[in-house]
Amino acid sequence: MGAELVFCVRLLDKTFGAQGYSNIALDRALRDSDLNPQQKSRVSALYYGVIERLPELDYVLSRYSKKPPEKLDPTVRNLLRCGVYQLAHMRIPDNAAVNECVNACKKLRYTSASGFVNAVLRGFVRDGKQIPVPKDPALRRQVQYCAPDWLIKQLSSEYGESVMDALLTDALGRPPVTLRRNPLAGDASAFLRAMGEISVEKHPLLPDCYRVQGGDVTRTDAFAQGMFHVQDLASQLCCLALDPQLGDTVLDLCAAPGGKSFTLAELMEDRGQLYAFDLHTNRVKLIAQGAQRLHLQCVHARTGDASLHNPELPQADRVLCDVPCSGLGVIRRKPEIKYKDPAAFTGLPPVQAKILENAAHYVKPGGYLVYSTCTLSRAENDGVVDGFLQQHPEFEGVSFLETLGEPFGNWKVTLHPGCLGSDGFFMAKLKRAR
Ligand SMILES: C[S@@+](CC[C@H](N)C(=O)[O-])C[C@H]1O[C@@H](n2cnc3c(N)ncnc32)[C@H](O)[C@@H]1O
């Protein structure tokens, strides 16, 4: 574990020093490394574990280190976080875990801190590795849920204690990997054969939706042959909510990396036109590459700003507005979102409203518009669509996917891990009456 530990500490140093997403930083670092698959999987477990449990780990450090965690050197702090995480949550013998951290100190050129690291970790081991319980009730919840106070309060007040509990508890473990099978690239048995050793299980709710137990799905023949793409259940349901028909003209205005565009095109059996836009040209390439791998001809990937009217675009039968958002529904995949400054989210609703307002121009009379986010924030969800409907009497909310039962059967649906096991997600379906 020595090499993995040093690798992980360096990656955590980079992650906390930058604004990027953990999954992208990890993928890139692992791709460029010479670690073997077992080492990669141990690095992933430790890296995500530390980010997910940061408040808990820092609380432990605050009790065992004379210096408060925020005053420690960032590299030493990350090494100690890894050490406490390994001791409390990984099956590594105590002595081995402590010794590795002491040795890693030297490899990271922090030899002078090795005695201190040893003392902090040995102190935690001596006390039976029990996570201390803070007396202060607010701090106790922060340590229990590994989340900041503002997030616990916002989720509880907007969605209730049980949704807050489900979302934050679920975010303390690795999320499921869900696939959308491409029915245009062969039948289900060919897909299962081409998945090889990877064990896949059909999702009880949706045809063409599969859960994966583990393993790198991108190394399978099925991936190479364009038989699936990775897509969470919530995101698949959002495409079914838009319900594109064969031959439709569909606009997907915030489309990268393209997961929803691909499912929409597959639902259309690749017949019709699907224009998939994104603001960032480098991300548009991901849509084009994905569509090519999945053999989808009807997807046209373009750079475009969804908040600005483009008079060259056709009137569409269906428009998807999967807007940029705070991402509070996907903290189990991107745990660093929990620690963002909430002030950074206050500018989102006006941007989302502007994109929705512009999207409405493209919808044909009788056509449909789906507004969606992967967040649980009332201001970004209900606030934006309710505000839009007040200004647009030509649109009305229409219910969707009623046959799936609760929580469907309304024109606005909020999903969270506690209901269907999906990511947290919001979708609203609107029809242009005239
Ligand atoms: C939630 S993600 C979309 C995920 C995508 N629909 C999928 O299923 O793969 C939001 C996307 O909106 C893009 N974006 C942000 N502002 C935009 C704008 N003004 N116009 C178009 N795209 C924008 C981001 O680059 C990001 O790729």
Descriptive terms for the model:
single chain, 434 residues, alpha/beta, N-utilizing Substance Protein B Homolog, Chain A, Alpha-Beta Plaits, Rossmann fold, 3 domains, 8-stranded mixed beta sheet, 45% helix, 15% strand, binds S-adenosylmethionine
Q: What do these coordinates show?
A:
The chain has 434 residues and is of the alpha/beta class. The chain is 45% helix and 15% strand. It has 18 helices and 12 strands. Strands 5, 6, 7, 8, 9, 10, 11 and 12 form an 8-stranded mixed beta sheet that branches. The chain has a 4-stranded antiparallel beta sheet with strand order 2-3-1-4, sandwiched between helices. Strand 8 (316-322), helix 16 (348-360) and strand 9 form a beta-alpha-beta unit. Helix 5 (74-89) runs parallel beside helix 7 and helix 13 crosses helix 14 (259-267). The longest helix has 16 residues, at 2-17. It is globular, with a radius of gyration of 23 Å. The site of S-adenosylmethionine has 21 residues, from helix 14 and strand 6.
